[in-house]
Each structure stands twice: as structure tokens, then as C-alpha cells.
Amino acid sequence: MNHQPTGYITKTIFFLAAICTLAVHKSQAQAELMPYGNLNGIRVQGQLMDFNTSIDVVGNSWHKINATAKERQRPKFKRDGDVETVNTAIDSLVFTETVTDIGKGKIKINITCNVRRDTSIIGVYLGLRLPKAVYAASQVTLKDQAMATEVLKDDMPTVTAKGITFKSPVQHFSISTNEAALIIRPQSDDLKYIQLYFPICEGTLKKGDLFEKTFEIKVEGDIDNTDATILLDAAAQGREFAGLGGNFRLQNAKTDPQVIDYCLKNLRVAWGRVEMPWRDWQPDMNTDPIAMADSSNLNNHVRQSMEMAQRLGQMNMLVVLTAWAPPQWAVVGKLKYRPTPDGVWGNPLNNDNTQQIYKSITDYIIYLKNHYGVEVTYFSFNESDLGINIRQTGQEHLALIKGLGKYFADKGLKTKLLLGDNSDATTYKFIYPAMNDPEARPYIGAVSFHSWRGWDTPTLQKWADAAAKLNLPLLVGEGSIDAAAWEYPAYFEEQSYALEEINLYTRLLAICQPLSILQWQLTADYSPLSGGGIFGNDGPLKPTQRFWQLKQLASTPAGLKALAVTVDKPAISCAALGDAGKHKYVIHLVNNSAARKVYLKGLPASVTRLKVYVTDKDHNVSQKGDIKVINNQAAFKLSARCFTTLESE
């Protein structure tokens, strides 16, 4: 549908029609393979033709399925041109999955299964889920059907054929093999998906057995490149965005310095989060850590962490100090750095040593201030809702805020505590006891959560509501999208990872209105750079697409406030920031689908032109000219799968 604004002159509007157009990709298809082995679909002209696959191991019942999934195994991922490879294992079954782009909307999947121990199961299958919203009204045909449909395996209908095709009014999907395969269609209560299973191996498997199956998948369908409309309400002003922040926890002595230097030289970083190596600061409760430090016995990791804080402070950054690993004397039980078999992380604080705990932390902050000139803005325990590495309940978190917060104040420190600093957005109930206790309020400086999980709008809105209720800033203390990605670091360089990360940040800006999003990390850990020996890559140090996206976001002028904005296409995420007094406005857009025209409405009368910056697979914060604004409106072409920023002149 064409949303042509009144009063526009066509040749005036579209003189920049190709402003953000992407270069044509060499590959006509683009499989969206996750690093743990599941396909999300195939992209055609940037648009995702949605389906999902997994490798499913069915035990002695169809009610017991162990499948490849995020954070369920420990996979490895790599790419070589148009070929992506995942190596993973489920119990004693070791899999190698390769996915190859072979033509327009077409891919090949090869799966090998290596049996490491005698195993008796119903089978190993390529699981396929097709969204009913797209395929429910499909015409279904079978390729080279070998036998009539029958009922096997827990009353599930099965059929043997070389493939199956679904043709819906808007999209076609087909999967085929070079040999007859049993297609199992389970009885499912899932209202969202059509489920199918294609066997890789079945029955009793012997140690040393090797099975291999190859499948081809082809998709085609309508490309939605209809016009999008963005509505800006510049009068609806929210909270301030100070700018991009970063985590600077030192973990890799050889490769951290080069990444830190590059990021601090090339990014505007507004906030920094550093580690308090508490375990190394005071390993013995009965030893005075300040006296030890003053006698030239300061632990090297402590010194380096303090110097990191000093460096950030000298760049006029506000600093968050966070403790991960505690000393043994400060907790109950032997220190745990991995979960127990029942999934419990970390250790609770030892209440018998509460005053010594408060003093130890405060001594560190005072020493950092007196010797390194850093006044810590906020203090936290990292992810104490989960236990990495100190575990607390919500009530214990409340007691810490009131007790340690008062201790800070009594010692004349301005440092306050973060409420939360949670592992994920999903654990928001952890902050409720402190949020609802008026006695805790004077000691809370800001609300914080980490963005690893829980991205739906209602969950994110709970954090925005908490900050609004307390009238405090909100920090995303650790920003990124996959807490296990360090195990398959090649995925950091994938376009799909980069776009998902900046898409989340754009949504966080719009929904949560944070004061800062602190990237995890601006060091070699989860590095936005590649090469330089990072994760074994000995090539030259260079920025990735993720870095350029961070740079584009970090270039947002300081102090702009969130503005209300809506967009009528779900594939586009949008966040707007502005300052009416300075006549400065910035709009960030992430398009994770096909190219389309966009009409932006509601711009203030003071805005007459918008500069355009684009980062995508082929452009690095490239300025693509400017757009003329007429009658508070602008029109432009948004390219496929890009991060675009519009900035008023």
C-alpha cells in the first residue's frame, strides 16, 4: 500500500531513492543458521522465509526429546564462504551439520551422526516446524511416495517419500532427500506450528556407527516491500540517553589491551563498568588490605583493575564497580564457579561476617578514590539473582542495599548501589523487595539489568516501569544477546548476530529508555574486533560489523531524551531521541527484512534536513547524503538488513 503524504512533489522526495540500497549479495539464498545447529529460515532479498529446524534425539518415548537449542549443548560454529558448519553433541551422539547456500532460496543440509556408545532410542531426526500462520492453508504434495500413510510409533501417522512440498497463497516450502525417507507427523497440541520429523537413524545404535543424511530445502514467496510509515511525537519526551557504555572486566592479559585501546580511541563511551577483584583484594579476613597495598603488596590483578577504572575516570566516564568472585571468608560453603548438578550457582554471603564484608568493599572504594582519583558512582554484585558468583534472594538484596548503602554514607562516600544488576530481564521480581521499601530508596543510585534473555516488550517494560516508579536512571549493565557466544566466537562475525544485537539495543532505547547500554565487552571477551590473536584469529586486528554498529550508536549526541515513535512494519525497529532546545534529533532504525520506502512524519518544524548514516554488511557508518524535510515529513529508501541513523542538521 502506498502511503503518499499530501503536498509532496515526487521528484523532490525521491531524488535520494537509492540512498541506502545494498550491494547485491553474491549468494542468492542466505540460510539463517544459529550456532547451535537450528535454522530460522532462509532469507530472500533480505526477507526471512520463516521455518525452524533442529536435530532431535527421541529417547524411549516421543515425550522425551532432546534437541539442539540455545545454551543446551556446547557447539562449535564456523563459516567458509557460503558453507556454515556446526559441530555439537547430544549425550553419546556427535553431530556435524553443514548448511550450504546453493541457489535462489535454496540450501543443502548435510548431517552426520557418529555414535560413541551403544544406544537404544526411537531415533535421531531432523525436526522441522512450519508456522501455521503461513502454511495452514497449504496444498501439500509428496515427492515419489513409496507407501501409503500408516500409523506407527506412539500412534503417529507416518509416510515414506523423498520429499514434501507446502504451497500456501504467499509462500512455498519444499524439503527433499535423494532417497526415500520416513516423514513422521506427530500429534501436537502446538497451535503455532506444523511439525514434521525426518529420520537420520533409528533403533539400536552401536558404538562406531556413522550415519549421514542430506536434505535440500527450497523456499519462495511474496516479498513484502510495501511502504512503511514512522510516526514521531516529539512532544512526548522521556528519559535521557547519555550514550553507549562498555564493560572493561580484564580477563585476557595478552589480547585485552589492543581492543580496549582501539575502542576507547574510536568510540564515544559514556559509562564504564569495571571489576572489583574482591577475592584478590582481601583473601584473608584478618588482614588489612589497605595496609598490604600501602606496603607495595597490592595484588597485580587488583592494580590493573584499579588502573582500568582510573583510565575511564580520566576520560570523564562515570564508573560502575562490580564484584564477581568473593573471598572464601565472605560466603557460606566452598566457593562455586560452576553450577551444581541441580543447577544452583554461586554462594550466599556469610551473615556472621557482615560488618567485615561492608568494611572490605568500602576500603576498596576508598583506596581507589584516594590513590587513583576515581569516585565510584555505583557498586553492585554481578548477577546475584543467579549467583555469578554471589547468590542472593530479593530480601537479601534489600538487606545489602540498606546495610552497605548506610555504611557507604557513614564513611562519607557518594557511591550508591545498583538495584538489580540482574542476569536477565526475566528475573525482575528479584528487585521488588528493595523497590518497594522506602528505607532502601536513599541508597539506590540506579536500576540495572543484563540483556541476555527476556526481550519481549512486556518484560522489558517492567524494567522501564521500575525506573519510572523510583524516578531513577536505568542501566543495561551488560548489553548483548547470547551469553554462550564465547564458545563459538566465529558467530560474532555473522551478519545475523550483528543485526540482532543492534536491533535489541534499538528496542531497549525505545522501550526501556536507559541512561546507557554497557556493551559486554569492549575488551577481547565478546570482542567487537577480530584478528590480533583474539579467539585464535591471528590475522590483523580489524573492526567487525558489530563495531561499526556500536560506533554509529555511540555517535548519538549526549543528553538527548527518548521520544515517542511508532512504526507500522514489525520487521523495522525504531528509536527516537531529541532535544527541542538544541533543535537536535536522532532516529535509529534497524530493518531486518527487505528494502522499502519509508515515510517519516511528525518531525518538528525546526528540522529541515536529515543526514543519513548506514551500517550493514557492506557499509561502515557511511554517510549517504541527506534528506530534505517538507511539511514536517521526510521520505527515503531503507535498504535491506541495515542499521540506519537519521540525524537533524
TrEMBL record:
Gene3D superfamilies reported in the protein's UniProt record: Glycosidases, Golgi alpha-mannosidase II
Keyword annotations from UniProtKB, A to Z: Signal
SUPFAM superfamilies noted in UniProt: (Trans)glycosidases
Highest taxon of source: Bacteria
Name of the featured protein: Uncharacterized protein
Signal in keyword set: yes
Signal peptide: 1-31
UniProt organism field: Mucilaginibacter ginsenosidivorax
